[in-house]
């Protein structure tokens, strides 16, 4: 991997072409976001912006070739790459991984607010998306059964939060990839040290915890959606606690498998548990109490 990353980073055009390829092949988009983050972290936001713009320009003729509106393809790519550049600029400037992840949460919450601040209500937009996207999928399924109006309304209520959480997750994963690749190339072991010490701070944790509680006690759509973004953000601190405890206590990485298995099989409950762990960590300090850092972290990357 180190040789491949070095080859990509040796030229702006190489970086732009690889980012363009990941934008054209949608399921590789996170890799492109990670590469944009790496360029921004290593060479600065101006170079990262140049790579992102070159790649997005290359998507225009590709979109025309496949019969897709160019503004949709290029705009979708830039909606990931540009916020990642802002996050990488902040990380490069402040060396604060937590602050940069919080920027991802802020972008996600802005998506939620945009839904509910539009001339139509957030519920109307969400229900229209459900009718246009999910209902045809139900109709095309084997049994062809479409849920009732109550079930469709319940799905629509989740749309703003799900979309915002998906964007936030993509931004965070892209930045983490970029930081990890930066460590592989230039600072072995640096990513592990950063991630194991991830802590959002009292203000962010209290705000996220408040949204968590309000969502449990109310049925207000905007609160539910904002709480989903907050839970995702806090989840990463919970994951950092788990990784740090396992690594510092000399345990096998196998002990982390149940955590990720739960995230796959029971996404929201597992995310909520990890978010609760993050809230408790700011009170109890699990890492300091049960597995203090030795100052000699293993140089291998997670």
UniProtKB/TrEMBL annotation:
Membrane-spanning segments: 15-41, 71-89, 101-118, 158-181, 202-220, 226-246, 258-280
Keyword line: Membrane, Transmembrane, Transmembrane helix
UniProt name for this protein: Membrane protein DUF2232
Organism in which the protein naturally occurs: Natronospira bacteriovora
Lineage, broadest ranks: Bacteria, Pseudomonadati, Pseudomonadota, Gammaproteobacteria, Natronospirales
